[in-house]
């Protein structure tokens, strides 16, 4: 009888990690789909008779809808089984990719990207709370590290592969190539994810209740400044490398590849290093990434030094997600879905604002001013995070 029980437990554990892997693939495809237009901007614009600036808004509109959905998903989904919601989000991503591939006009492209934004906001808002239900509490950081490994894969390979394949099969062919992978992922969700009944009906009152908690409000501000700093720098990395470091397209692509591959290191290490005292790590992402950005201002003329600094930055960029989501899982365990919605909304909004602030500094002053702005935002995030004690739930200290 004991052997049978152990066998059942082993099968349940294997099934849980299979579901985590399914979500990891979905993360990779979401990141690839969201940022693929970056590497295909010019051919998409040419194919749809739009300007590059207009086509760039295809990224902004997905971010806008991701923010809106992250705040609405837990309320709109109500008591729907979370497995069904995740499957619906993945199906929506498949529809969006097919619409982009077939888009006859710029308007259809924007509609397709809006649908993708809904998928991004909905999936990310529920992802951490679902992970918390799939594996034991002690395994949550490892599972989050595995899930964010999908982000590292997409960050490392999506842009260069998309750019390369775009020259061979065209930009529409690139989006068509993503559809069978997402279709397989959709089937995997159906098979691997267990039934996840909604535990309670969420309302906007849950958001207000969370924002009244001083420790969570302070953490949310630290999250906003951390991601804002990161994307103020990352969005304008190419002009910095071209103007300051003086690298060409090939070297730039290699540095991006190295930065993306560093994400594997960050996701693997953070998943193992996040222990019971996660609050001690909260200041590290902004501190190390801000430090790397400041060092680039001093040593950015050296391609070797720049490559090493970007590798460290890339590793911590992925670790940042694991660290902060682990903090959320432990300090707001009573409201994981509402907390996830607020976290995703803050991150998506900070990405948009970071790109906006960085662009203004670049246009008015220079790319070094953009990187300086990133360092300042990181400094604010470090001050807000501090030693992490003020970001702990006083009931659970």
From TrEMBL:
The chain crosses the membrane at residues 15-38, 58-77, 84-104, 110-131, 143-162, 174-198, 219-237, 249-269, 281-299, 305-327, 339-361, 367-387. Keywords: Cell membrane, Membrane, Transmembrane, Transmembrane helix. It is a multi-pass membrane protein. PROSITE patterns: MFS (PS50850). It is found in: Cell membrane. Gene3D superfamilies: MFS general substrate transporter like domains. It comes from the Bacteria. Its main location: membrane. Residues 1-390 form the Major facilitator superfamily (MFS) profile domain. Pfam families: MFS_1 (PF07690). This is MFS transporter.
């Amino acid at each position: 009888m004991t052997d049978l029980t152990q066998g059942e437990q082993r099968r349940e554990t294997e099934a849980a990690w299979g579901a985590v892997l399914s979500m990891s693939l979905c993360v990779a495809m979401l990141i690839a789909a969201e940022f693929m237009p970056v590497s295909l901007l010019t051919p998409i614009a040419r194919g749809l008779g739009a300007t590059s600036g207009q086509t760039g808004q295809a990224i902004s509109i997905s971010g806008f809808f991701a923010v809106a959905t992250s705040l609405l998903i837990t309320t709109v989904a109500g008591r729907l089984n979370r497995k069904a919601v995740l499957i619906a989000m993945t199906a929506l991503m498949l529809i969006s990719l097919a619409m982009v591939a077939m888009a006859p006009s710029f308007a259809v492209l924007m509609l397709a990207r809006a649908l993708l934004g809904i998928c991004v906001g909905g999936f990310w808002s529920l992802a951490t709370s679902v992970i918390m239900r799939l594996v034991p509490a002690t395994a949550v950081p490892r599972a989050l590290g595995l899930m964010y490994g999908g982000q590292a894969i997409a960050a490392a390979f999506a842009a260069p592969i998309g750019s390369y394949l775009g020259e061979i099969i065209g930009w529409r062919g690139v989006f068509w190539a993503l559809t069978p992978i997402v279709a397989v992922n959709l089937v995997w969700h159906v098979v691997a994810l267990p039934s996840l009944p909604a535990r309670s009906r969420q309302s906007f009152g849950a958001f207000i209740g969370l924002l009244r908690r001083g420790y969570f409000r302070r953490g949310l501000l630290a999250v906003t400044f951390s991601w804002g700093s990161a994307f103020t720098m990352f969005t304008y990395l190419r002009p910095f490398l071209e103007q300051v470091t003086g690298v060409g397209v090939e070297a730039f692509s290699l540095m991006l590849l190295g930065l993306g591959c560093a994400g594997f290191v960050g996701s693997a290490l953070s998943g193992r290093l996040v222990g019971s005292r996660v609050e001690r790590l909260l200041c590290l992402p902004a501190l190390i990434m801000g430090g790397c950005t400041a060092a680039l201002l001093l040593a950015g003329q050296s391609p070797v030094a720049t490559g090493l600094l970007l590798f460290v930055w890339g590793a911590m960029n992925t670790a940042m997600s694991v660290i902060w989501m682990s903090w959320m899982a432990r300090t707001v365990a009573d409201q994981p879905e509402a907390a996830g919605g607020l976290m995703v909304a803050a991150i998506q909004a900070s990405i948009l604002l970071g790109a906006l602030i960085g662009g203004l500094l670049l246009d008015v002053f220079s790319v070094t001013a953009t990187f300086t702005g990133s360092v300042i935002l990181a400094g604010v995030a470090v001050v807000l995070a501090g030693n992490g004690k003020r970001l702990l739930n006083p009931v659970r200290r």
